[in-house]
């Protein structure tokens, strides 16, 4: 089996016969029951692959879906124009960085669908591309935006730069509402709900599916999907680790399961760590080893949250769904995947948060605590973990 670690292109994944867990039933439902969506999930949870899958679907590439649920569910397979904006590939440390990547995408789209010289601003050019793409192909457009929030996250701590980015993105995304008649589908993904109010204030028709039970496993892997698709690999992992089958399942669950994006729903495994474990036949902190997000380090430095308080926070749905604010970094820490829903009180409608699993808890202690907790010569993050455990 070839594991798709780092593979974010659906066409490449299918043609090169990488392992794929079929999520296309949910994709079909998404497309046929609504139009404008927003999805927040932690990094490396498969958001980019989801958008690439949607791109292949809207381009009518039926052959790529052979053997998947969508092949039998879809009857039309219309080839539509797709505008796929990936904000993942730039470093947003100056105002020109965002303008440059938006301009580069617009130039590419204008090469396909033409440009009107009267369209001088980024938003006017975007609206013109959408209109002409629809008119020239005879089909409404699909719009996919990957990591919409990366410019805002990378500019945390620089209010002037954030304001520039916000002023640029607000009218750009607002085009999606004004051009509604030319658009078939739109999905914007990101780690946080950073701009749900400020950046998206002109786009109030977005349906947020981040806490929608119907799509809780759209990104990530469930335990049932592991047993359905990786049963032989589970036994091979157990043999390599000299563990029983039952102990191997329990170890995987303790390390990588436990993400709950909605109360009282099944846990979701971190797909990146899980697939790395199967590939290497060895347990490890794969998610954390890919690097600590600089925005999280900045948040922890600025707010100096008490670890004991953060790991046992009680909050409400408005906080979980809120945008980042200097006064409370908890929403971003939760949305980034470092905390998850551990319990729900229906009477008071409050959520109890905690670390999703051992990988995140141990990684937090090892990689993040030293950034904002001064340690003495004889202290270590492990010592802090012991104190936290005793207090808990």
UniProtKB/TrEMBL annotation:
Residues 4-200 form the AAA-ATPase-like domain. It comes from the Bacteria. Pfam families: AAA-ATPase_like. InterPro entries: AAA-ATPase-like_dom (IPR018631). PANTHER family: AAA-ATPASE-LIKE DOMAIN-CONTAINING PROTEIN (PTHR34825:SF1), CONSERVED PROTEIN, WITH A WEAK D-GALACTARATE DEHYDRATASE/ALTRONATE HYDROLASE DOMAIN (PTHR34825). This is AAA family ATPase.
């Amino acid at each position: 089996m070839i594991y798709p670690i780092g593979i974010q292109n659906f066409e490449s994944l299918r043609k090169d016969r990488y392992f794929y867990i079929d999520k296309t039933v949910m994709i079909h439902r998404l497309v046929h029951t609504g139009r404008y969506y927003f999805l927040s999930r932690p990094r490396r949870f498969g958001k980019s692959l989801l958008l690439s899958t949607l791109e292949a679907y809207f381009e009518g590439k039926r052959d790529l879906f052979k053997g998947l649920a969508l092949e039998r569910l879809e009857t039309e397979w219309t080839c539509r124009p797709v505008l796929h904006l990936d904000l993942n590939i730039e470093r947003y440390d100056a105002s020109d960085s965002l303008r440059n990547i938006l301009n580069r995408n617009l130039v590419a789209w204008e090469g396909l669908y033409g440009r009107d010289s009267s369209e001088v601003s980024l938003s006017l050019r975007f609206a013109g591309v959408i209109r002409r793409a629809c008119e020239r192909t005879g089909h409404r457009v699909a719009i996919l935006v990957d990591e919409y929030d990366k410019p805002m996250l990378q500019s945390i701590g620089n209010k002037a730069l954030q304001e520039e980015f916000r002023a640029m993105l607000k009218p750009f995304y607002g085009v999606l509402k004004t051009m509604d008649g030319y658009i078939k589908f739109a999905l914007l993904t990101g780690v946080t709900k950073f701009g749900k109010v400020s950046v998206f204030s002109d786009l109030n028709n977005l349906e947020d599916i981040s806490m929608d039970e119907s799509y809780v496993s759209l990104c990530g892997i469930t335990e049932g999907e592991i047993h359905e698709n990786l049963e032989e690999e589970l036994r091979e992992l157990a043999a390599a680790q000299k563990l029983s089958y039952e102990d191997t399942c329990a170890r995987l669950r303790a390390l990588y399961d436990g993400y709950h994006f909605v109360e009282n729903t099944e846990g979701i495994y971190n797909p990146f760590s899980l697939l790395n474990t199967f590939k290497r036949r060895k347990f490890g902190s794969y998610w954390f080893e890919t690097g600590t997000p600089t925005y999280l380090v900045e948040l922890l430095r600025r707010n100096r949250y008490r670890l004991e308080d953060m790991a046992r926070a009680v909050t409400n749905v408005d906080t979980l769904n809120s945008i980042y604010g200097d006064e409370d970094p908890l929403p971003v820490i939760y949305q980034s995947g470092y905390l998850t829903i551990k319990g729900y009180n229906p009477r008071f409608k409050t959520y109890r948060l905690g670390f999703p699993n051992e990988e995140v808890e141990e990684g937090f202690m090892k990689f993040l605590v030293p950034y904002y907790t001064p340690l003495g010569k004889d202290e270590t993050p492990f010592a802090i973990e012991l104190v936290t455990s005793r207090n808990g």
